[in-house]
Amino acid sequence: MKFLIDAHLPPALRRVFAAAGHDAIHTIDLPDQNAAKDSVLNSVSMAEQRVVVSKDTDFYYSHLLHGRPWKLVLVRTGNMSLRDTCGMFEKHLPAISSALQSHTLVELDRQNLSIIA
Description:
There is one protein chain. The protein has one domain: Rossmann fold. The protein has helices at about 15-20, 40-50, 55-65, 80-100, and strands spanning about 1-5, 25, 50-55, 70-75, 105-110, 115. The longest helix has 21 residues, at about 80-100. It is of the alpha/beta class. It is built from four helices and six strands; from the N terminus they run E-H-E-H-E-H-E-H-E-E.
């Protein structure tokens, strides 16, 4: 599965996704880097069938109303250390991948993964 990690999450998450066998890029890898607009992330997501991983609820509403981005993991946590963030994704990534096989929107908080759509 291919992922696009938004600017509010650490670039180090790419390694967590890669270790699990996924292709992951971060907004820092895009031409406008972390200044890339949401519309650019949506375009990349649709063109490359990448799941956007973001804390930005604008993506949530865009996905529900317009089907953009292609698929979404909405992260519902406050600020966390890099270690805790990576650990949370290491723990939940198998369930995220499984849920996204048949769903398009999941929410992740510190403890749980919820399927929304």
